[in-house]
């Protein structure tokens, strides 16, 4: 028994170094596999992406948390009414649109937040978008080729016009000049809107606008619509004044209002200048 115990002890002592060697080899193999399989663009906790998110968090805490909550969970005012909706899950595209068009931060609450010059720089907008995108998945900022219309064909512009008249004219007018909506809201004019913001608006559905996801409008359909609107932006007005581009109706209305109004004014002026014939009391009418 004593001889068997000493043999077992020698076996255990030999296994101890062997286990250490196996463990070291396994660690080296795992490290090598991680270095090979992890993408080159992956960043650590202190990488540029994390720094951008942290910068966005600081900007959000200063400029956005008073309405949207410190963690973008939504906020209320002193009366318990909703001051700002939750931004969790809206994605980077929504932030880039709202802040890039100057609608956010809002100057004051109202039925609709109007467009104004942006408050933040492009780098700050990207940081805010990165922070909100880190909270939950949502639509990302589209790539430039998604809304690049520099090489579109005439057929694509025509198809974009058909899609625009089908999906957009009820609010934005067939010429993209905007229009009134119920409860003090309105569809803004698209004559100053950039292709990037048009694509993001269709992707995210800001304010009362519906969301036109890729399941509703394919990316190439969105690009065709943008091409049509850009063509409207670049179109000339042969008459000199666009008049909402409503055609002969508005032009005829202004023709009657101004033209007939001037004729009436001239008639009144002529009548005032013509001397009246005075008759004696005893003079007959013939």
Automatic annotation (TrEMBL):
Heme c 2 binds at residues 168, 171-172. The chain crosses the membrane at residues 253-272. The keyword Iron applies. Residues 51-136, 155-233 form the Cytochrome c domain. It catalyses: a quinol + 2 Fe(III)-[cytochrome c](out) = a quinone + 2 Fe(II)-[cytochrome c](out) + 2 H(+)(out). It comes from the Bacteria. GO terms for molecular function: heme binding; iron ion binding; quinol-cytochrome-c reductase activity. The keyword Ion transport does not apply. GO terms for cellular component: plasma membrane. Keywords: Cell membrane, Electron transport, Heme, Iron, Membrane, Metal-binding, Repeat, Respiratory chain, Translocase, Transmembrane, Transmembrane helix, Transport. It holds the Pfam family Cytochrome_CBB3. Binds 2 heme c groups covalently per subunit. Heme c 1 binds at residues 64, 67-68. Coiled coil: none annotated. It is found in: Cell membrane. This is Cytochrome bc1 complex cytochrome c subunit. It comes from Kribbella shirazensis.
